[in-house]
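Structure, all two chains, one model.
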Amino acid sequence: MEKFGFSLSKARVINYDANDRGIVRYIIEREPSLKLCIECGCCTATCTTGNFTDFSLREIHILLKRGENEQVREKIRKCMLCGKCILVCPRGVNTRNVISVAKQAFRKTEGYEL
Amino acid sequence: MNFDPFVIPFNIGLYFILIYAVVRCIIWFRELSRPDKLRLQRGFFGRAFGQSLKEIFLESLIHRKILKSNPRLGYMHMSLAFGWFLLIVFGTIEANIFSEKHLNHSYKAIFFRFFHPDHGKTFFENSYAFLMDLILAFILSGLLIAVIKRFSSRVVGMKKTTRLKPLDKIALTSLCLIFPSRLIAESLTCGAYGTGSFLTGSLGKALASFLPANELAYPFWWLYSLSLGTFFVLLPLTRYLHIPTELFLIFMRNSGIRTGDKPGTYSEVEVHSCSSCGMCIDVCQLGFTTGINTIQATYLMKGIRNSDELYDVAHNCLMCGRCDNICPVGIEISPIRMIVRRAEGKEYMYENTSKGYFRNRLTVPAPKQEAGTSYDFLPRLRQEKTDVLYFAGCMTHLTPSVKKAMVRILDASGLNWSFMDEHGGVCCGRPLMLAGNDREARELTNYNSQLIEKSGAQTLVTSCPICYKVFRESYYLDAEVLHHSQFIKSIIDEGFIDLNFLQKRVTYHSPCELGRRSGVYYEPREVIKHVATLEATAFDDENSLCCGGSLGNIMLSRDKRQKIAEDVCSKLTECSPDSLITACPLCKKTLSQATGTRVMDIAELAVEALADTPGLKMPRSRSKKKLLKEPATSLR
């Protein structure tokens, strides 16, 4: 076969359909206000933990919705549940419960899929 | 006549419940921790014993606390408990005096009239019969209220009454049948023999005039015995277990045993002592403002007894402590709720064996240690040496006006002070604890403790009651912890700042964490009275309301929080004050979104009243003034 100097590059596509969205479904079932999130980032701006590290609740919400759970599992443990994010949220998302239920979901699915 | 087959059901019930009580006590005693065992022994042979007897008489029989807060409901409980007690005591005396031999079987006292139908001929016998009738009438009046309460709880001045499970209903029915069947049985027997006093005698005469009284009496004596027997056998499975358990609770409490933070005998006795009276339902703001009627303390206790799924019940609570305050039995509800929250992750706290008659506690599996710490990213902060350390707290950073006011006051006081979390600090850990994550919280408390230790401060001032409570109770600090209202009070007393009197009428909203949870009512009031006219409201001190913003509740939606806040505001601004004063940044934030009245923190009020003092112009931490006197501790 003739070689033209082209090759198949490694796929850089994230296939959301293949991701496991069970965790986010579990959270929304228990805390429906997560659906209201517009990813404005107010929570990240005020975050106590975010003051010291790159922890971002907005990022966590996005990752959860995409089903990229493995990244969230570690990040989520940095939250201090102090509750400032609830007070600044313009949409009334109960962010503390999102974190709490997500932790619960990860604990339940240790090694399993929902 | 000394025996009749109809007494058998009663006897079975009675001996069953006595044996059960003994076995249960042995199991409970064995499960107590060693120090608690010693406490109980010391309490049993010490002064606490007399105190317990007095309390049992006042609370378990007379129901003094319920009588005080709700006379009609109190009368209902008193007539059933105290009346039954009197009936048993006087019945036993009657049986022992008037029957041919003394020291009879217990059933002789209960069914005295059946075995001595012609009793009541002489004057002395007749007056005794009058007394017994009076007691029976006393009980029946209470029973009538209880039956009406089942259909319309408003009659006893309650908005809601407790929902029951089927077994409770059977027990309730048998309990309701006991006294009417006794009345009819006695009346018929009396009617047949022409004896009895004003109640049984006259009713018996009326019935005997058109009924074959002597033949009809026998089935009613059977019914009386059967309903007593059924009630005794079902007692351990239903809420009526509170009748014997409350006695143990009073003994244990007076011996100095407390709930603590792990499930144990005491918490189990507390859970079983709940009589489901429903007082906690009426004071619960989630109930009367947002219409959530499934999570109140009585349902929590019922859920634990029945091993129900309790995640929602345990977590959907403001932890305001209003129910702890009102509980007539004195159950420590919030610690029990926290135990259930901590037990999250495994399915049940208790399991049932032998169809619920004996329940074993599950041994709590140690939580799986997650690798590494959660908060290893926290920087090694430096902390300068100082006398007074000010910790604003997360919530104060969201209400900058409080922070600014405190900075001005601290500067004006001329004390050597330093701002611990000026550029954003670490959470105090209480929000994590309230969510049941104690292990994570400990990392934060350790971090903050080191920082406070490094500063060498003698006084730690915080603006947030949530932080105040945790600093005081879970930190083990050398420094004295003061809420800023206490601090302002002490520097006024020391003369470090001068405050003018403002021409203002204000009301005070006492934050739950500062008031009911920490017992600080006096200092904030004194500070407010020092600078403004404080108007009284119907919700002062112990009776104060929760603003709705509570971090204790992780599940409540924003709409419902807003609803609670609006309700609280409308109640506190009834006298249309110039401002609504609070001492918690979270309360301020929540309330100010729900009212047109200006909501101010106590520090802001103080700054408004601040007279020009020389200290104000001095840069911070130059002065050498020190707090001389020990600041006044809170008056509980």
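The two ends of chain B are 62 Å apart (CA to CA).
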